[in-house]
Amino acid sequence: MSIIKAPENTPVWVDEARCKACDICVSVCPAGVLAMRLEPTSTLGAMVEIIAPHSCIGCNECELTCPDFAIYVADKSEFKFSKLTDESKERQEAIKKNKYMKLSA
Known about the structure:
This protein is α+β, with helices and mostly antiparallel strands. It is 21% helix and 15% strand. The strands form two sheets. The chain has a two-stranded antiparallel ribbon with strand order 1-4. A two-stranded antiparallel ribbon has the order 2-3. The model has no long low-confidence stretch (mean pLDDT 91).
């Protein structure tokens, strides 16, 4: 659980200055909310992106596994999270198959 106040109407957010683009958060998200995007200015050439905030289930897996404390999940008292859907599970599987990178539109 995050001790930082969530931006209004935001279930999950990233402090890109702290993120080293390890993609651990993407790998543990069961709802396909996160993916990596190409970012040439980043040390590893990528950055985590919230691609489906409406699908966040508030499980906190991303926040709990981030080694750099760069990702935060809103408190359940501050945000109404989604339920895990088949669509979300399918998106997560597609992201994993795409080596954690953002899916093409």
